[in-house]
């Protein structure tokens, strides 16, 4: 098979021929139809993630069709069209049995812990537990995004933020997860305000349904003024910056919730006195377990949510090495289509 392989952190990846993967006894091999190019793929390529082995095939956000299964697989069948959460649980630990595979202590992630989906074929672990059927007719490029950014945004908003129709949500950072949050929150009946320093990213958020956008440099007072009612009830920090975390907390109304999705380095300062005085909640959110996909897939199957709206560029596998090494335009989203 053809695959994109990283042989040195930060060096331009190579398009190479590799042996076709074979499924583990409880795994499956999927012929890849599309793979999203995610910011975390670039972090792995640059060597920012501990434990990523060299050489490796990146790619964790995928859609495709099952072409082989291991001898112990019972639920998944050859020919099934599937995606998978980027956090693949072991399926047997206490967290997985409770439907919380996104915090499985034995989790594996294609493109990080083992070869991923920037390839014609990808081997996935614990198939019965992790593979998720795709609705018929789903666009491959849009379906791939259900594996990471759309699912991550959905769980941040619903499972951690608890949004309801009529809520006003502040999204900080109009990258992959942030733009997905705009799309999902609007689908669920919430108004979305987006803070991002890049005019192009703000314009993209408006096209996806944001009711207002602003530069975060305007500060929390301006955000609360723009939103009204004392500020946002839910904020999603998807930028991964310490100052964005502080902005999100200070832009909340009393008893508001900030959901931290962006990966922060170091130990950011948190305005604890304000959290206490306003009874705020700060919570993390890490992907979404396969057990939580049915409600999201219902939105897709009924046409209420179209993840393909997020896609701006579709490229062939041969163009993936250069795309992985390039700096993306603000608000853009590239999907590799086989």
Helix content: 25-40%
Indicate the proportion of strand residues: 15-25%
CATH homologous superfamily of the largest domain - what is it? Answer: Medium-chain alcohol dehydrogenases, catalytic domain
Q: N-to-C terminal Cα separation, in Å? A: 12 Å
Q: CATH class of the largest domain, please?
A: Alpha Beta
Blueprint of the fold:
Elements: E1 2-5, E2 14-17, E3 28-36, H1 39-46, E4 62-69, E5 81-83, H2 94-97, E6 121-124, H3 127-130, E7 132-133, H4 140-144, H5 149-160, E8 168-172, H6 176-187, E9 191-195, H7 199-207, E10 212-214, H8 220-227, E11 232-237, H9 242-250, E12 252-260, H10 272-278, E13 281-284, H11 293-301, E14 313-315, H12 320-325, E15 334-337
Parallel strand pairs: 8-9, 8-11, 9-10, 11-12, 12-13, 14-15
Antiparallel strand pairs: 1-2, 3-4, 3-6, 3-15, 4-5, 5-7
Can you describe what's shown?
The chain is α/β, with parallel strands linked by helices and about 350 residues long. It folds into two domains: about 1-150 and about 290-335, Quinone Oxidoreductase, Chain A, domain 1, CATH 3.90.180.10; about 150-285, NAD(P)-binding Rossmann-like Domain (Rossmann fold), CATH 3.40.50.720. The protein has twelve helices and 15 strands. Strands 3, 4, 5, 6, 7, 14 and 15 form a seven-stranded mixed beta sheet that branches. Strands 10-9-8-11-12-13 form a six-stranded parallel beta sheet, sandwiched between helices. A two-stranded antiparallel ribbon has the order 1-2. Strand 11 (about 230-235), helix 9 and strand 12 form a beta-alpha-beta unit. The longest helix has 12 residues, at about 150-160.
């Amino acid at each position: 098979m053809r695959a994109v392989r990283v042989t040195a952190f930060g060096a331009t990846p190579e398009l190479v021929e590799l042996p076709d993967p074979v499924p583990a006894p409880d795994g499956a091999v999927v012929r890849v139809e599309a793979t999203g190019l995610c910011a975390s793929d670039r972090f792995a390529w640059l060597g920012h993630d501990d434990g990523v082995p060299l050489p490796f095939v990146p790619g964790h956000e995928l859609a495709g069709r099952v072409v082989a299964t291991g001898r112990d697989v019972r639920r998944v069948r050859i020919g099934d069209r599937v995606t998978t959460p980027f956090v693949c649980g072991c399926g047997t630990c206490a967290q997985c049995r409770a439907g919380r595979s996104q915090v499985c202590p034995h989790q594996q992630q294609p493109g990080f812990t083992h070869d991923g989906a920037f390839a014609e074929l990808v081997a996935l672990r614990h198939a019965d537990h992790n593979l998720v059927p795709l609705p018929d007719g789903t666009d491959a490029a849009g379906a791939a995004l259900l594996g990471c950014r759309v699912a991550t945004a959905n769980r941040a908003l619903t499972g951690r933020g608890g949004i309801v129709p009529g809520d006003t949500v502040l999204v900080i950072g109009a990258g992959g997860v942030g733009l997905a949050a705009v799309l999902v929150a609007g689908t669920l009946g919430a108004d979305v305000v987006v803070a991002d320093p890049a005019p192009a990213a703000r314009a993209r958020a408006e096209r996806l349904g944001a009711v207002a956008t602003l530069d975060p440099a305007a500060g929390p007072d301006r955000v609360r003024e723009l939103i009204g009612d004392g500020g946002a009830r839910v904020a999603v920090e998807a930028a991964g910056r310490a100052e964005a975390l502080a902005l999100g907390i200070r832009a909340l109304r009393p008893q508001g919730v900030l959901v931290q999705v962006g990966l922060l380095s170091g130990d950011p300062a948190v305005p604890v006195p304000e959290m206490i005085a306003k009874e705020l909640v700060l919570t993390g959110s890490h992907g979404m377990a396969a057990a939580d996909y049915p409600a999201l897939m219902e939105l897709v199957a009924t046409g209420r949510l179209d993840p393909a709206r997020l896609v701006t560029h579709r490229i062939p596998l041969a163009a993936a090495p250069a795309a992985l090494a390039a700096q993306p335009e603000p608000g853009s989203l590239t999907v590799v289509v086989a």
